[in-house]
């Protein structure tokens, strides 16, 4: 048996904020402040233009505090988190939860039908079974997969807005908010920056990006989508955005290789195995990173035709899809804003 562990962070390279704007601009006096931290199991970068370094650092620190709070509420592995308690009490009793956890659970439930049942916050038993990125990662047997799939029914999850409780009726079902909590954390970090007077900045949590406002010279932020092929780290696409999130999911982010077959972390709830839709990367451009987090996973699982159709019917959302044969597809609202940087890739529609 040939096993190889490979963990690659999702990388979106932002062509951003390092150069000062001309002194003729009124906001040229703003100071660029940056902080980097390990949060939510990934590398976080927050940058902000502020009237002073002290104020900028204070705003960014508050944003990181909020991100850490979310991690402590929604992690599956942190003992004492809301999700940990919900899973521990599956089949036993309802658990009192924080309003933030309640909000994310409700959003996850809402997206289940919207995503054509491809986004499921109750996939914890399957995710644990595959264990991708963990010490026990392996290819499960067909019987193990079928057994786990008997415990991903979201009708078994009861969420009470009145009582602020959550309860899993199935004792073998597990919640996992890994496909939505990071996007929510990005949105909350942006809210904190705005509340503290920041009008221009960028939050990047392991590739879940939000570009706040425009750059200080009034031009949009330029964000690049990374090459989806393992071992490549160049940007292949560049787009310009302001007050938008850019979130990418791909089969190159987290995976392991067993018997020369690569198994990635995006599990299709309808098969119980890593999705095989012909796509290698899906980028979502939307007003909220939480929506982008969810939809990038869903579209990746649905594939080119169904995925594009889903996005074309959602207002304010655009997508860029890359197929295994290096063809780039895009929804109608973003086509004119795509710059191909790598000649190995070509537009397909």
UniProtKB/TrEMBL annotation:
It catalyses: L-threonyl-[protein] + FAD = FMN-L-threonyl-[protein] + AMP + H(+). Its EC number is 2.7.1.180. Pfam families: ApbE. Mg(2+) binds at residues 179, 293, 297. One of its GO terms (molecular function) is transferase activity. PROSITE patterns: PROKAR_LIPOPROTEIN. Keywords: Cell inner membrane, Cell membrane, FAD, Flavoprotein, Lipoprotein, Magnesium, Membrane, Metal-binding, Signal, Transferase. The keyword Metal-binding applies. It is found in: Cell inner membrane. It comes from the Bacteria. Magnesium. Can also use manganese. One of its GO terms (cellular component) is plasma membrane. Residues 1-20 form the signal peptide. It is a lipid-anchor. Its cofactor is Mg(2+); Mn(2+). The keyword Signal applies. Flavin transferase that catalyzes the transfer of the FMN moiety of FAD and its covalent binding to the hydroxyl group of a threonine residue in a target flavoprotein. PANTHER family: FAD:PROTEIN FMN TRANSFERASE, THIAMINE BIOSYNTHESIS LIPOPROTEIN APBE. Belongs to the ApbE family. This is FAD:protein FMN transferase. It comes from Alkaliphilus oremlandii (strain OhILAs).
């Amino acid at each position: 048996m040939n096993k190889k562990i490979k963990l690659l962070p999702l990388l979106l390279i932002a062509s951003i904020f390092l150069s000062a704007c001309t002194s003729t601009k009124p906001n040229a006096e703003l100071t660029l402040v940056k902080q980097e931290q390990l949060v939510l199991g990934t590398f976080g970068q927050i940058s902000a233009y502020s009237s002073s370094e002290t104020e900028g650092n204070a705003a960014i620190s508050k944003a990181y505090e909020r991100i850490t709070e979310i991690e402590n509420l929604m992690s599956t592995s942190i003992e004492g988190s809301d999700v940990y308690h919900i899973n521990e009490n599956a089949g036993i009793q309802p658990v009192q939860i924080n309003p933030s956890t309640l909000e994310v659970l409700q959003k996850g439930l809402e997206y289940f039908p919207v995503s054509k049942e491809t986004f499921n916050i109750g996939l914890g038993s399957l995710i644990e079974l595959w264990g991708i990125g963990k010490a026990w990662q392996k290819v499960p047997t067909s019987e193990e997969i079928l057994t786990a799939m008997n415990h991903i029914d979201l009708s078994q999850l009861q969420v009470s807005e009145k009582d602020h409780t959550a309860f899993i009726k199935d004792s073998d079902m597990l919640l996992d908010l890994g496909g939505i909590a990071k996007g929510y954390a990005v949105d909350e970090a942006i809210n904190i920056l705005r509340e503290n007077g920041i009008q221009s900045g960028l939050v990047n949590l392991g590739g879940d990006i939000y570009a706040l406002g425009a750059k200080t010279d009034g031009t949009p932020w330029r964000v690049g989508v990374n090459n989806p092929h393992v071992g490549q780290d160049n940007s292949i696409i560049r787009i310009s955005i302001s007050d938008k999130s850019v979130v990418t999911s791909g089969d190159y982010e987290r995976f392991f290789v067993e018997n020369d077959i690569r198994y990635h972390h995006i599990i299709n709830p309808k098969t119980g195995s890593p999705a095989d839709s012909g796509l290698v990367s899906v980028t979502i451009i939307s007003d909220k990173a939480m929506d982008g987090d969810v939809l990038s996973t869903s579209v990746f699982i649905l594939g080119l035709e169904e995925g594009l159709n889903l996005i074309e019917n959602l207002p304010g959302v655009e997508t860029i899809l890359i197929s295994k044969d290096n063809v780039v597809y895009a929804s109608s609202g973003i086509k004119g804003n795509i710059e191909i940087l790598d000649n190995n890739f070509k537009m397909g529609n």
